[in-house]
Amino acid sequence: MQATNGEETIPALSELEGAILSELRHRGRQTAFKVRRSFATSPSLEWRGSAGSVYAAIRRLELARLIEGEEQADRRGTRLLRITEQGSAAMAAWACDVTRAISVGVDPFRLRSGIWDAIDPAIRPGLYEQLQAALIRDIEALKGHRRYGDVIETASVDLAIRLQQSRLDWLRSLSARGLSER
Amino acid sequence: MQATNGEETIPALSELEGAILSELRHRGRQTAFKVRRSFATSPSLEWRGSAGSVYAAIRRLELARLIEGEEQADRRGTRLLRITEQGSAAMAAWACDVTRAISVGVDPFRLRSGIWDAIDPAIRPGLYEQLQAALIRDIEALKGHRRYGDVIETASVDLAIRLQQSRLDWLRSLSARGLSER
DNA sequence: TTACTCATGTAACAAGTTACATGATTTA
DNA sequence: TAAATCATGTAACTTGTTACATGAGTAA
């Protein structure tokens, strides 16, 4: 996120900042703690939503007036956060950035896929077996998760299932090709 | 990546470090510059392979003795890098880490998918239109790219195409559902 | 000889991570 | 009342980013 330039903010939101805004937009007033926890239970390893990142991002968003906090009459200093109108606009711009939205992102599977073809042929079938089994388990877990999620989460989980399924299809297409060649 | 503990290295390679090792493993001796350039032309926005990160990662990998450099008889200080045996082992461990490999990663499309459903209905159809058009263009570009890539890159490009296709299918399933409801 | 590509990096900054610290409130 | 959960953060660190600096070799 960039700083204010004196007149107006030109917020190029990070993925975390966008996600925090959308969390507040769709679930209403939340404490920072709850925002953070909703990230912690996300199905991504890369997405820890650590305290250090979330509280820092919230401070940045508040400075840019994209969110506001209200102190509660509470001895533990609970603050309820809500998104401002400018925040909604910034979030919409972030969500509708087509170039960024369709970017392939950081995909650990894709990054490793080229290597698997060249590893020791003695362990390769076992690895493919493990990958397929892990993908199948993950798809099942996501399907279970989908039942309890709300509308906003459903899209995300649905896409995660499609991603894992397409990885699985790719692995199976490798095996099929391998068999036909022998 | 973790430091040596006096006796042995326990390298938990970052994605960049793993990618550098696999680049050297599969394309043979390379200058840091060429490794870097091969990342710069990658199809990911999140993957810049900036000078700062690549040269720093190479220094870390060299300190951990996962790669070695040889000075060339050259007045511009060209150094050819190659992977060591320990480097190959570390790369294999990194590539075969099933849990990390099947992680869904940071997916900008999935992160935004839940928001699109709730944006202004006046602009939503246009957005979906733009997303579909951009995905189709990207798939065409990837297909063109595939023809010139080597064996290692083919897997990665193939998976990128499958990812974009599954996003496109998801968008089309939304439109189909939307139409049937009206 | 001018411009481009190859090749090395550094400096300042941004934005994550883990691990820790502190205390209030609720539940078993 | 003990343990779990809610709630706030900070400190030290890691690993990326952009933008800049420097210079050698090559092709127009």
Task: Count every beta strand of chain A, where a strand is a DSSP E run of 2 or more residues.
Answer: 2
Oligomer: homodimer
Mean pLDDT of chain A: 89
Shape of chain A: elongated
Structural class of chain A: mainly alpha
- How many angstroms does the end-to-end distance of chain A come to? 54 Å
Strand order of the largest sheet of chain A: 1-2
Q: Largest interface by residue count?
A: A-B, 63 and 63 residues
State the share of residues found in helices of chain A, binned by percent. Answer: 55-70%
The main sheet of chain A comes to: 2 strands, antiparallel
Low-confidence stretches of chain A: none
Can you count the helices of chain A? 8
What gyration radius of chain A follows from the Cα positions, in whole Å? Answer: 21 Å
Secondary structure blueprint with pairings:
The structure is a homodimer of 182-residue chains.
Chain A: H1 15-27, H2 32-40, H3 51-63, E1 67-71, E2 79-83, H4 85-95, H5 98-101, H6 108-116, H7 124-148, H8 151-181
Antiparallel strand pairs in A: 1-2
Helix pairs in contact in A: 1-4, 2-3, 7-8
Chain A binds a DNA duplex (28 and 28 nucleotides) through helix 2 and helix 3.
